[in-house]
């Protein structure tokens, strides 16, 4: 930084205190007014909330799809929806839940909470963060806009070739699907890079690697998995769209292409994807179990090692999705062993949480109750997963309702139950008001009974021969009763989410005031005000413990010397978190929004003509040049 | 035959045929009584099925251990132990309010992993129940641990946190025990799974009979190879008690061939040849359906495997291989009256 600039902004946080410091920082880090201000914001909290609300909107949409499917399957030979619409529904349900809800909702919580938990003022690369949100939003809107306009993918969330090829599925549905993948993957990769850099370089001084909250460790591993897994599916979806648009032959067996290549690439992403969706759930569980047991998590080191082990092992199991494609025997056996092995680090995590509850004094508030539901459901789902790891057993249950039951136990039990717990847990931080406990407990009862009624019978249906993705079944098969039961449970489960929505709306308006730390939790986000100021913390905390809010008492050490009128934050070393430099954090800018818009136009255009890429690239390049235009000039404008 | 698939609704003619096949089969084969024993009166909408099953109930008591005899597991005690589980699970749908017709499907064309009638499916069911009982036990232990942890000590919201709890030796021992036991159990299950792969991967000499199955959207073309080769659609007949190899290929997209009561599934993939071995251990009709999503009418892509006594099978085969007779007209007539000659209806469209 030039000496001239140093002179212009002299005031540092050591010169001020109390309300004045808070007001000045809040002005520096604040978001502009009006529509332009809203679209320009780079505040990780505002973007995190947008991410979360968008993801919940998609959850609702995907849930409605599920309810329509359950109504169709409630009776044999039903004609509520026809085969064509049913195939579109399950495609949209799976795609929405995996790509537009499951992945982004974890990122939403990471974007909001990680900077707070590591004690910094904004996420790393905040403009990229804004860009990623808009790209995600446009991708989701494109898919659902297409659905509304009857451009509907109907070949499953996995789009196996050759069914998804032009020969068997003309029309634009699969292209919209494939481009949606590109959108969400770009967004996910961007967020992951931000999280990794935030965690490794922006931690508060003193927060050494072994003082990072488990939540943050989990999100770090989660981000690394995304970085290594997502390119595989982007590659695959781009190859698919090129096969469909410009006549490449990647997946044409007759022309020397390989159909199984699609499956390998898709599942090389697809299995880590399960952990991409599940790990945020474990992050929530770690935070909530500690707070409500009134103890730090038992076995910090084994927990961190398990997370890292899961991160690596999750890349070694993808072939268990392909056990019935006719693999060589030894190859299949290898993937049985690796799939079994990942149960061990997961078992370690479960053990450590239960040990924490054992050693602590559990307080049964709604968040912990949902976490107990998580144990009940997820452990069952994990164990049925051990069955699927076995090649011979898998040949019987693969692509049946047994598998449907299994992964809903894992994903809903492993992610959605902790997610609801997390909503109850962090709602007071985000809004400043507590959610209603009584409604929360009713919601749990509905969700728990509804979920198990909906999904347990599916195990039996699968064993009795009911395959997945059938829009109806003959009455003689005798699957009617269990399907009716499952549909009834699904309705209950759906109702529990409407109850949560109602609770959120009412509590946001008239819930009890929360204060900064309503649960007396240990991690730094509870040191910020509720809701947090734009600058998160008036002074950057100095960390001497793994549970700073429990161990460091009221007299918390802080780090001083940051400028007040410029967006400055502390960059620290990777392992020891020694303060290295003061770094300027980018200010709000409209260019990320415009860049996302230009990118979206190019991507959507490319579905119709390859020339959209040719003509779209210069436009995107121009917008990016404006975005990255050197700061000193931008300041003078 | 082409319009059979292109019509988009191949189920209709099959429904009529299935009723008839079950009827015909029960008339000649008393062993079918084994699974019909489970039938309660008035459970099915179909009068043909209902009357036939009632007729064979009395024969069930003659062979109470019919299925057990066929378990190909060295440890007979273990098999019997698992059988108890299976009975319990079979009762479960009833307890859950399921339409008991599920059990009746044993008489219309069995389609259930839990009702194995073939060498491969037997082995897979044993493996399944082994895993299910071991893992179910682990689930119970985990839940018991969780429950104990909750009632062990309870706190109140205002209570200050204990921030630096001593790591107690018993918890470290429990941790080590958990780690060791899960490693041992998982290794054990892995070894069992490897053993079970014999049921999936063929080994040894070629089978007595090889049949080609070609998947189409949304029907199955079945080709009996050899000098007197012939074709059928959506129906395979095999002799009981001898291994049959099924060569799987597809004419369009990926399908998956799955007859749960006989063997696990295997995909039909363009440009790849897969081969599945099945061996039925008693006569019967076993239903299956495509298990890989294959487009619009995936739900209706069913197939039947009819296992016959060897001599009966040879007669059928010879009959099929014989020059075509003007059978189509006759078959259509008798479908209308729900009583076609057994072999005519399914193969009428094939030649």
TrEMBL record, chain A:
Signal peptide: none
Cross-referenced CDD domains: Ubiquinol_Oxidase_I
Annotated compartments: Cell membrane
Enzyme class of the recorded protein, top EC level: translocase
Topology with respect to the bilayer: Multi-pass membrane protein
Keyword set includes Transport: yes
Pathway: Energy metabolism; oxidative phosphorylation
Record field: catalytic activity: 4 Fe(II)-[cytochrome c] + O2 + 8 H(+)(in) = 4 Fe(III)-[cytochrome c] + 2 H2O + 4 H(+)(out)
Keyword tRNA processing: no
Keyword field: Cell membrane, Copper, Electron transport, Heme, Iron, Membrane, Metal-binding, Oxidoreductase, Respiratory chain, Translocase, Transmembrane, Transmembrane helix, Transport
InterPro entries: Cyt_c_oxase-like_su1_dom (IPR023616), Cyt_c_oxase-like_su1_sf (IPR036927), Cyt_C_Oxase_1 (IPR000883), Cyt_c_Oxase_su1_BS (IPR023615), Cyt_c_oxidase_su1_bac (IPR014241)
GO molecular function: cytochrome-c oxidase activity; heme binding; metal ion binding; oxidoreductase activity
Predominant cellular place of this UniProt entry's protein: membrane
A Gene Ontology cellular-component term: plasma membrane
Coiled coil ranges: none
EC number, as in UniProt: 7.1.1.9
GO biological process: electron transport coupled proton transport; oxidative phosphorylation; respiratory electron transport chain
Domain Cytochrome oxidase subunit I profile as annotated: residue spans: 23-544
Membrane-spanning parts: 51-73, 93-118, 130-151, 176-200, 212-236, 274-293, 300-320, 332-356, 368-389, 401-427, 439-461, 481-502, 590-607, 613-630
Top-level taxonomic group: Bacteria
Family the UniProt entry places it in: Belongs to the heme-copper respiratory oxidase family.
Functional description taken from the UniProt entry: Cytochrome c oxidase is the component of the respiratory chain that catalyzes the reduction of oxygen to water. Subunits 1-3 form the functional core of the enzyme complex. CO I is the catalytic subunit of the enzyme. Electrons originating in cytochrome c are transferred via the copper A center of subunit 2 and heme A of subunit 1 to the bimetallic center formed by heme A3 and copper B.
Name of the protein: Cytochrome c oxidase subunit 1
């Amino acid at each position: 930084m030039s000496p001239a600039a140093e002179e212009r902004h002299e005031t540092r946080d050591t010169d001020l205190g109390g309300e004045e410091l808070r007001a000045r920082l809040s002005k520096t880090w604040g978001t502009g007014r009006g529509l332009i201000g809203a679209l320009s914001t780079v505040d990780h909290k505002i973007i995190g909330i947008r991410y979360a609300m968008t993801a919940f909107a998609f959850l609702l949409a995907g849930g409605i799809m599920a309810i329509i499917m359950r109504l169709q399957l409630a009776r044999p030979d039903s004609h509520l929806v026809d085969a064509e619409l049913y195939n579109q529904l399950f495609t949209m349900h799976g795609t929405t839940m995996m790509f537009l809800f499951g992945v982004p909702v974890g990122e939403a919580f990471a974007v909001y909470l990680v900077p707070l938990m590591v004690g910094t003022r904004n996420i790393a690369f905040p403009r990229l963060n804004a860009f990623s949100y808009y790209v995600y939003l446009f991708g989701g809107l494109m898919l659902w806009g297409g659905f509304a306009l009857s451009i509907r993918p109907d070949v499953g969330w996995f789009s196996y070739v050759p069914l998804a090829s032009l020969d068997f599925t003309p029309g634009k549905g699969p292209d919209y699907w494939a481009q949606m993948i590109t959108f969400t993957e770009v967004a996910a990769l961007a967020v992951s890079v931000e999280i990794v850099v935030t965690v490794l370089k922006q931690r508060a001084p003193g927060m050494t690697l072994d003082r990072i909250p488990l939540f943050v460790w989990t999100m770090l591993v989660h981000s690394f998995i995304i970085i290594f897994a997502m390119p595989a599916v982007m590659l695959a979806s781009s190859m698919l769209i090129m096969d469909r648009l410009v006549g490449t032959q990647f997946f044409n067996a007759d022309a020397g292409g390989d159909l199984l290549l699609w499956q390998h690439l898709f599942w090389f992403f697809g299995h880590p994807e399960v952990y991409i969706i599940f790990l945020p759930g474990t992050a929530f569980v770690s935070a909530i179990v500690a707070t409500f047991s009134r103890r730090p998590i038992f076995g910090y080191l084994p927990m961190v090692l398990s997370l890292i082990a899961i991160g690596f092992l999750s890349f070694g199991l993808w072939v268990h999705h392909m056990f019935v494609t006719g693999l060589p025997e030894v190859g299949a056996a290898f993937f049985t062993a690796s799939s079994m092995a990942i149960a061990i680090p997961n078992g370690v995590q479960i053990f450590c949480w239960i040990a924490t509850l054992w050693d602590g004094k559990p307080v049964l508030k709604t968040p912990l109750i949902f976490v107990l539901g998580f144990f009940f459901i997820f452990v069952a789902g994990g164990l049925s997963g051990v069955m699927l790891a076995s090649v011979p057993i898998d040949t019987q249950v693969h692509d049946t309702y047994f598998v449907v039951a299994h992964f809903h136990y894992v994903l809903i039990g492993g992610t959605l139950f902790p997610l609801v717990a997390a909503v109850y847990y962090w709602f007071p931080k985000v809004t400043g008001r507590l959610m209603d406990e009584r409604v929360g407990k009713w919601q749990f009862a509905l969700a728990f009974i509804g979920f198990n009624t909906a999904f347990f019978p599916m195990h039996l249906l699968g064993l009795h021969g009911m395959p997945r993705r059938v829009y109806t079944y003959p009455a003689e098969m005798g699957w009617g009763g269990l399907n009716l039961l499952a549909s009834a449970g699904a309705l209950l489960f759906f109702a529990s989410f409407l109850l949560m929505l109602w609770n959120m709306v009412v509590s946001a308006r008239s819930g009890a005031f929360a204060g900064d730390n309503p649960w007396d939790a240990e991690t730094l986000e509870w040191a910020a005000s509720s809701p947090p100021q734009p600058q998160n913390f008036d002074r950057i905390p100095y960390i001497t413990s793994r549970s700073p809010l429990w161990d460091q008492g009221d007299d918390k050490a802080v780090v001083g010397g940051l400028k007040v009128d410029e967006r400055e934050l502390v960059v620290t070393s990777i392992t020891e978190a020694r303060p290295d430099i003061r770094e300027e954090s980018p200010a709000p800018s409209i260019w990320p929004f415009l860049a996302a818009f230009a990118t979206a136009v190019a991507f959507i255009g490319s579905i119709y003509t390859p020339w959209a890429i040719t003509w779209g690239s210069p436009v995107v390049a121009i917008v990016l040049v404006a975005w990255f235009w050197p700061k000193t000039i931008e300041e003078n404008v | 035959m082409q319009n059979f698939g292109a019509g988009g609704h191949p189920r209709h003619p099959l429904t009529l045929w299935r009723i008839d096949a079950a009827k015909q089969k029960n008339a000649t084969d008393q062993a079918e009584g084994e699974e019909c024993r489970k039938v309660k009166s008035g459970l099915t909408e179909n009068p043909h099925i209902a009357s036939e099953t009632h007729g064979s109930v009395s024969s069930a008591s003659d062979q109470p251990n019919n299925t057990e005899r066929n378990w190909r597991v060295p440890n007979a005690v273990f098999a019997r132990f698992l059988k108890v589980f299976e009975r319990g699970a079979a009762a479960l749908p009833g307890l859950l309010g399921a339409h008991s017709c599920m059990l009746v499907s044993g008489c219309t064309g069995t389609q259930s992993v839990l009702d194995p009638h073939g060498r491969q499916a037997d082995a897979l069911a044993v493996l399944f129940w082994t895993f299910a009982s071991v893992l179910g036990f682990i689930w119970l232990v985990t839940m018991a641990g969780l429950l104990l942890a909750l009632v062990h000590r309870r706190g109140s919201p205002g209570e200050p946190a204990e921030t630096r709890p001593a790591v107690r030796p018993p918890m470290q021992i429990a941790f080590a025990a958990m780690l060791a036991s899960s490693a041992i159990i998982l290794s054990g299950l892995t070894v069992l799974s490897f053993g079970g792969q014999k049921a999936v991967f063929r080994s040894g000499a070629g089978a007595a009979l090889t049949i080609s199955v070609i998947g189409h959207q949304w029907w199955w073309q079945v080709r009996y190879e050899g000098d007197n080769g012939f074709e059928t659609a959506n129906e395979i007949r095999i002799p009981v008690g001898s291994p049959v190899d099924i060569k799987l290929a597809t004419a369009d997209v990926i399908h998956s061939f799955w007859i749960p009561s006989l063997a696990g599934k295997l995909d039909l993939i363009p440009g790849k040849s897969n081969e599945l071995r099945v061996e039925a251990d008693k006569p019967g009709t076993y239903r299956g359906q495509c298990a890989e999503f294959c487009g619009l009418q995936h739900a209706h892509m069913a197939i039947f495997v009819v296992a016959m006594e060897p001599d009966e099978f040879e007669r059928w085969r010879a009959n099929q291989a014989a020059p075509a007779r003007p059978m189509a007209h006759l078959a259509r007539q008798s479908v209308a009256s729900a009583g076609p000659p057994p072999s005519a209806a399914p193969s009428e469209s094939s030649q």
